[in-house]
Write a structure and sequence with these properties.
The protein is of the alpha/beta class and 607 residues long. The chain has a domain of 232 residues: Alpha-Beta Complex (DHBP synthase). Helices cover 35% and strands 18% of the residues. It has a 9-stranded mixed beta sheet, with helices on both faces. The protein has a 5-stranded mixed beta sheet with strand order 3-2-1-4-5, with helices on both faces. β7 and β8 form a beta hairpin. α3 packs antiparallel against α4 and α9 crosses α11. It starts with a strand and ends in a 20-residue tail after the last strand.
Length: 607
């Protein structure tokens, strides 16, 4: 049997594909990057085409296709849920079922028909896929595994162990009791889009005070010491309607759900903070219980809740585990990777090796790359003026531009797999610049001003700038800025809180310091992304600062850019100063007038 496995996740959100060759991760990508439809849930045909091309294989060379969940069990859960609340929910049932039946039941037929594949297909349980994505690529030979999300088939939370090539799920919490759905319910109530805006709630939380924390624990969730919990379903709408909350939820918090795009008030900030505190407490109790029942010193995390980097940071700092590893594509996209790895290690029973130091994710740079020749061909066709430099000169020039306050679209090497831009498809800037957060939010990303930005810092310097001395290559851990780098508030500022603190410098790196002095950290090493490392190192030589701003290369409502064409379009639509693609640099002031659709932003679905 050939050792080529294709992993697929589809039909919920963030469809994706992954290719393994003899157990090695060759390629992985989300469908949205190719279709330009954010969170695209359709069958990931373009992502599959890319993976096969990257691996230089044809569909006939694939020995096994692994799908990330079990569609029939998911349908069973949906049907049982509607029956349990009948006759309530009849309208939402009628509305939801055609799509569910069309997609979820006929998955094998879709795979055979759309790919021309006639081989074997396996279906993993959803949380098995998450667990496999968490443990198998990790650097650990054995570890506890904690998965947390909205819901798979029935499971919403699981605790298990990984040893060698074995997985053992020991404890589960089942639907409708879900930490992910609790967070999504508040996301909906606060006026953001479910399965997309949860990170906004996390970013909003530091502006608030936990005034509603006790109310949440009293009325919405019953939390036990072992981290198990039950939701009070009388306040939630996802059992019998297509909404996350019901009118009772609004009465509990004194007002109906906020309408999207309306002004945010201190009340919303306080609710967000209360929810975040509750989430962190649950995550910490679950981690402590996982340690108690497994006896492991290492912990692996996956599932959408594992993208809550504030909670992850708390588990690392206050939890019982010595080491933590988090799957960078922790959400459903990572299910494609987990299913493929499950197929290799569990279904085919192939050996797994881990050295205890480095994971097998290749920095999560698993998407397409483009040569300088390909970039030049596109720019020449477009008529865009550019400079081509040798690598050393490019590093020098880009670092100098950063030190002068320029914002730069950074397009290098392979595209990242997962929701974070990690120096492959990033917009970068000077973290010392007090105006950089506002410039990037309002003039480049076209998004809310409260949104924080992440620091990218040289790995060897992380403990000089932050209260942390650990690797965080995937931007999934939050830690405080070091006391010595903070700026004391002026006397007249000491009583301020909430959004009033937004534009007050809080440290020597104000562009990446949140109002509570926290930062979502990416540590950068030269092994996985040398150009990115070299830029930051040269920036440090010029400025004495080993930290830059890193945000994803896209505008609000658009997926992260994939191709040179995507990058140039985004560059020209925004107020970015420069674009660097490979060894090629473009200056905005030299570009011709860009002819664009005046209503281009309307094509993107605001998140």
């Amino acid at each position: 049997m050939k050792g080529n496995i294709l992993g697929i996740s589809a039909f919920y959100h963030d469809s994706a594909a992954c290719l393994l060759k003899e157990g090695e991760i060759i390629a992985a990508a989300q469908e949205e990057r190719f279709t330009r439809k954010k969170h695209d849930q359709d069958f990931p045909l373009k992502a599959i085409e890319y993976c096969l091309k990257e691996g230089n294989v044809d569909i006939s060379d694939i020995s096994l296709v692994a799908f990330y969940d079990k569609p029939f069990i998911k349908i069973e859960r949906i049907l049982e849920t509607y029956l349990s609340v009948a006759p309530k929910g009849w309208r939402s049932f009628i509305k939801a079922m055609p799509g569910l039946l069309k997609q979820k039941i006929w998955v094998p037929q879709e795979i055979h028909k759309k790919l021309g594949y006639s081989g074997e297909i396996i279906f993993c349980e959803h949380h098995e896929s998450h667990a496999a994505s968490a443990f198998f690529p990790s650097p650990f030979q054995e570890a506890a595994i904690l998965t947390m999300d909205g819901v798979g088939e029935w499971t919403t939370t699981s605790i298990g162990t990984g040893r060698g090539n074995k997985l053992d799920i020991k404890h589960e919490i089942n639907f409708p009791h879900s930490l992910g759905l609790l967070y999504s319910a508040f996301t909906y109530y606060l006026g953001f889009k479910v399965n997309s805006g949860e990170y906004k709630v996390m970013g909003l939380a530091p502006y608030g005070k936990p005034k509603y924390k006790d109310l949440i624990f009293k009325e919405l969730i019953d939390l036990k010491e072992d981290g198990s919990f039950k939701l009070n379903m009388k306040y939630f709408g996802y059992l019998d309607s297509l909404r996350m909350t019901n009118s009772g939820f609004g009465r509990l918090f004194g007002a109906p759900a906020r309408k999207p795009e309306t002004k945010l008030t201190q009340r919303e900030m306080d609710i967000a903070r209360s929810l975040q505190d509750v989430t962190e407490e649950i995550m910490l109790k679950l981690a402590r219980h996982a340690h108690k029942v497994t006896g492991m010193k290492n912990l692996c995390l996956a599932g959408g809740v594992a993208l809550n980097c504030v909670g992850n940071g708390k588990v690392l700092r206050e939890g019982p585990f010595e080491n933590i590893w988090i799957q960078p594509a922790a959400g459903d996209a990572g299910g494609a990777l987990g299913a493929a790895l499950f197929g290799w290690h569990r279904y085919m029973d192939k050996e797994r090796k881990a050295d205890g130091k480095k994971d097998s994710m290749k920095g999560s740079y698993l998407g397409p790359s483009f040569t300088d020749d390909e970039v030049e061909a596109f720019l020449t066709k477009t008529g865009a003026p550019y400079e081509k430099l040798d690598s050393s000169t490019l590093v020098q020039k880009t670092a100098k531009l950063l030190s002068e306050g320029k914002t730069i679209g950074w397009f290098q090497g392979r595209m990242e797999f997962g929701p974070r831009a990690l120096g492959g498809r990033s917009i970068i800037g000077d973290a010392r610049n007090g105006e950089m957060q506002s410039i990037m939010n309002l003039k480049i990303k076209f998004r809310e001003s409260f949104r924080p930005f992440a620091p990218a810092v040289l790995r060897e310097d992380v403990n000089k700038w932050f209260e942390m001395d650990a690797e965080s290559p995937y931007m999934l851990l939050v830690a405080p800025v070091k006391e010595s780098k903070r700026v004391a508030l002026k006397k007249e500022e000491e009583d301020l809180f909430g959004i009033a603190l937004l534009n007050i410098p809080k440290s020597e790196i104000p562009a990446v310091t949140h109002v509570d002095y926290s930062a979502r950290i990416q540590t950068v090493e030269g092994i996985t992304n040398k150009p990115y490392y070299d830029i930051i190192k040269r920036f440090k030589e010029l400025t004495g600062c080993a930290v830059i701003v890193n945000t994803s290369f896209n505008v609000r409502g658009e997926p992260i850019v994939c191709t040179p064409e995507d990058a140039y379009r985004c560059f020209m639509r925004t107020n970015m100063d420069n674009l660097v693609m490979g060894n090629i640099i473009l200056h905005k002031k030299e570009q011709p007038v860009y002819k664009d659709d005046d209503h281009w932003q309307e094509k993107f679905e605001l998140d």
